[in-house]
Amino acid sequence: MADLAIKKKRKRIRWAPYLFSAPFFATYLVFTLFAMIFTFYIGLTDWNGFGAMNYIGFDNYLRMFDFATDPRLLQTLVNTFVLMMMSMPVGIGIAVFLCYFIQKKTLKKQHAFRVLYYLPALMTPVAIGLLWSILFDYENGTINKILMFLGIITQNIYWLGTEAGSRFVLSFLLVWASFGSTVLFLSSALTNVPDEVIEAAYIDGAGPVRTYVSISLPVIRDVIVFIVITGMIGGFQLYDAPVLLFSSGPSGGLPYGGPNRACLTMMMLIYDEAFNGMHYGYGAALSYGMFLFVAAFSFTSMKLMTKKE
Amino acid sequence: MKKQNKIKDRIVGYGVLSLFALTTLFPFYVMVVMGTHVNAQLFLKLNLWFGSQFMPNLRMLITSGYFRYFANSLTIALPATILTCLSSAMGGYALAKFDFKGKRFLVNFVFFTLMLPGSLGTVAWVWQMKQFGWINTYWPFIIPAMGNTYGVFWMYQYSKSAVPKEIMESARVDGCGELRMFFQIIMPFLFPAVVALGLLAFVGTWNNYFGPMLILKNRELYTVPVGLATMGSLFRVEYSTRILGMTIATIPLIALFVATSKHFIFGLTGGALKG
Question: Is A252 strand, coil or helix?
């Protein structure tokens, strides 16, 4: 009898892990993975969202890389790269700098600061885009008014009306919205650095700054790599904030993607093609173009950052 | 001498941290202030102090149907968050704490899918939702929420270190069923990570604009972000009212985060980072 009961239990244990992980794997396969694979197929058709899907071979995929006739994919790639270069080093730099003070044992109440820095990450990206379009508006923006009041400028700056200006505002927005989560990740990781290691550095005569830079930071390098990679994957998929940033400031609307499409991201291009232009086939192909670049970027940066062993 | 150093250290430290905190909060402050002014004067001068138009703006917001969007967002975000937490905790725990055939493959599968950008399948996803007859419904944001790769990965990492195997063994010896064990004994160990994941899932669903914009065609179904984005162009709502709407949309998230921040940060430390 007892034997039978144990056998029964064993059987149940064998089924349990499959049962427990089934909801995740089933939904992931049916919705996410299937959609990813089927998007590749739609890229092989001329589907317009309503009619039949006619197979047209690799036309869409080839057209996308024909930069002479349609330079937009190349342009979004350049934009993404420039925006990353303008925002990520600054955001991570600020976070590394602030974490030096946050991890200090002589200070207290660091928790409150971490909470405050994270608040922008909670705000709806749509609202962030709208708010910043008002802050940096040409004629009515708060920033121009403050600069004018302080006597720094005598004429309003057309922030969102120029390529450089709009890229500056967007990267400023990105830094503001994301440095808090970098602070959270870094400061959480820093608590994992063993105290003995730090004390040993002090005994060897290293100052606190030196200890932080050459002992603590290298220990958490994996976390920094993680932040860079996820930041990059997020950057390619950026959509809400840049769309709303140029949608309707008090001084009037600006073109989709900013002046000369200087802030057009890949996701914005895909949306514009597929859902505004009704070229679902081409939009699907562009999605894979985006994927190709995401993969290449993250792979290269992972190799570059983990090489220095 | 040493004490003096310590004081100097503190002044510099708090000074730097506060400076960045004030800069971070400034846009929030401007937003809150702007929502309390009458629209006609909003852009005439620099408004850095509260106005007297909070109530009229709020009334206009109510008549514009804004709080309908609020109820809609909650209708989506609550079930989506609960399902994400459940499927992720169960899946992550199963992958971390059981030995079974195909385990290696499934774990590697989760690691691999982490690298795929979520929006890769958007075009086909919209097609799929049409086939399902889910256009103009909330299902597309509730059911697929269970397939959260990041959540499963996080719970997998967290379960590995947070759930002691001995407890599972002794529960089994005592005749506890697997399902009951998960809910009554395992869940308390996973709690900090579940809170952290729940917060992220809630914020992510609440703030999602792209999906609802593609799926929801009727204004009565709009969520907060879609409502905010269309308010100006479609319904000619004034700026000050719209800004007040932004403030109100942000408040629940901030309250939720402040209330759970201790768990959130603890869940972060114990989870994804230890891998």
Answer: strand
Instruction: Please indicate if any CB of chain B lies within 8 Å of the CB of A299.
Output: no
ipTM of the complex: 0.89
Quote the mean pLDDT of chain A.
Answer: 87
From the options 1.10.10.60, 1.10.8.470, 1.10.3720.10, 3.60.40.10, give the CATH code of A67-307: 1.10.3720.10
pTM as predicted: 0.90
- Chain A's closest residue to B246, CA to CA, is A127
Using alpha carbons only, what angle is made at residue B53 by residues A146 and A160, rounded to the nearest 5 degrees?
35
Interchain CB contact of B248 with A (< 8 Å): no
The rounded distance, in Å, linking the Cα atoms of A45 and A279 is 10
For A131, nearest residue in chain B (alpha carbons)? B31
The Cα angle at residue B140 between residues B135 and B146, in degrees rounded to 5: 170
Give the C-alpha separation, A34 to B134, whole Å. Answer: 17
Query: What is the rounded CA–CA span in Å between residue A254 and residue A256?
Result: 7
Of B42, B72, B97, B90, the C-alpha closest to B241 is B42
Sign of dihedral through CA atoms A274, A278, A279, A280?
A: positive
Contact B117 A39 (CB under 8 A): no
Instruction: Give the 3-state DSSP-derived string for B193-256, with helices as H, strands as E and coil as C.
Output: HHHHHHHHHHHHHHHCCHHHHHHCCCHHHCCHHHHHHHHHHHHCCCHHHHHHHHHHHHHHHHHH
DSSP string, B31-64: HHHHTTS-HHHHTTS---S--S-HHHHHHHHHHT
* Secondary structure of residue B65 in the 3-state scheme: coil
Q: Does A31 touch chain B (CB under 8 A)?
A: yes
For residue range A180-204, what is the model confidence (pLDDT) as tens digits? Answer: 999 998 988 888 888 888 888 888 8
Among A119, A191, A68, residue whose Cα is nearest residue B25: A119
- Which among B43, B119, B149 has the least Cβ separation from residue A250? B43
Three-state SS at A69: coil
Task: Compute the Cα dihedral for A176, B261, A236, A39 and give only its sign.
Answer: negative
Mutation site for A-interface testing, chosen from B14, B76, B120 by largest number of A Cβ within 10 Å: B120
Window A:164-183, CB contacts with B under 8 Å = 176, 180
A228 token code pair: 């860079």
What does the block give as tokens for A1? 């009898």
Considering the domain B66-270 in this protein, what is its CATH number?
1.10.3720.10
Every domain of chain B and the residues it spans = 2-55, 66-270
Strand partners, A45: A55
- DSSP percent split of chain B into helix, strand, coil, nearest 5: 80, 0, 20
**B2-55: pLDDT as tens digits:** 677 788 888 888 999 999 999 999 999 999 998 888 877 777 777 788 888 888
